[in-house]
Amino acid sequence: MLRVLILFLIVIAGIVVGPMLAGHQGYVLIQTDNYNVETSVTGLVIMAILLFVVLFFIEWILRRLFRTGARTRGWFVGRKRSKARKQTQRAMIKLAEGDHRQMEKLLARNADHAEQPMVNYLLAAEAASQRGDEIRTNQYLERAAEIADTDQLPVDITRVRIQLAQGEIHAARHGVDRLIALSPRHPEILRLAEQAYMRTGAYGSLMEILPSMAKADIYDDEQLQVVQERAYVGMMDQLMSEEGSEGLKRWWKDQSRKTRHEPALQVAMAIHLIQCNDHDLAQEVILDGLKRQYDERLVALMPKLKSGNPEQLEKFLRQSIKQNGATPLLNSTLGQILLKHGEWLQASDAFREALKQRPDAYDFAWLADALDKQHKPAEAAEMRHQGLMLTINNSQQ
């Protein structure tokens, strides 16, 4: 800038000095309503130069003043940012300590000057939610939404998480539906959706997002299987309460073969049918499942059945003992079925075989009942005593 000024002055000096040396300075008249200004060309040029110099000097002074103001303002802003950074670090320590009140205060102070103001407000909202302060929670969320502008996804996710924590499950369900539509494979959205759907009984919606959960690697295969089973059991609960045994039967037939062959679902279906007093269909489900794959959970349900065809159960149990060997569960289950149908001697033999393999207080009690029916009170009393002593010993361990 200074070089340009010097060059400009040299040019002007040439223009002024040239006419002066030549003796021809010219004449300039500036006329207004009240004044007349008369001067030479040289004088006008000199006045213009002086005006330019004055303006340049004023501009230099103003620039220095504004620069000083900017530095001062930058100093204050930098100080606030540094303070906000330290407070955020202290807030993370309070988070680890579980002190949500102090965490909220530290995050909210100078949050606008933090490196990520939106994150500070969102964490402060969760801290306020932990304290049960809904007013401050909403204030922090609104402020975070203002800062986020077009990037509202983190704010919406935090809002749904807080709603679930506060028990506002239907509001959370509404928020989750909207988030799923916006980002169907976002891991945290899928986790929140699982909670919202499970707690609102939206088991069909939960089943729909299971493929996305698998692709997002939220759970391993075993955990995902557990979630799927919970969804199926939830559907069974709803059908049982709304339509009873007929609804369960119709729904079960509509399922794929793969679903109907899942042992855990067969167990759940049999339990629901027994609760609906549909023992014949429950027995059919149990035996069909055991023919394809042996499962102790299905065997354990047999004594609860009150079907008109107990011979099928007894036949299956005896065949299993011959083919796979006697187990305490098989012998005990066989004994309970025989006991229910008045076959006292065979029932007592089955209970004795089970007790040879492992002591069990229930088998001692059932064996005592079978011996009472055979008019053997002394032996029955001895079995009850052994069962009582076993219960006492187990409770003391």
From TrEMBL:
It is found in: Cell inner membrane. The gene is hemY. TPR repeats lie at residues 328-361. One of its GO terms (cellular component) is plasma membrane. The keyword Transmembrane applies. It is a multi-pass membrane protein. Involved in a late step of protoheme IX synthesis. One of its GO terms (biological process) is porphyrin-containing compound biosynthetic process. Keywords: Cell inner membrane, Cell membrane, Membrane, Porphyrin biosynthesis, TPR repeat, Transmembrane, Transmembrane helix. It comes from the Bacteria. Signal peptide: none annotated. InterPro entries: Heme_biosyn_assoc_TPR_pro, HemY_N, TPR-like_helical_dom_sf, TPR_rpt. Residues 26-132 form the HemY N-terminal domain. Pathway: Porphyrin-containing compound metabolism; protoheme biosynthesis. The lineage of its organism: Bacteria, Pseudomonadati, Pseudomonadota, Gammaproteobacteria, Enterobacterales. The chain crosses the membrane at residues 41-62. Its main location: membrane. This is Protoheme IX biogenesis protein HemY.
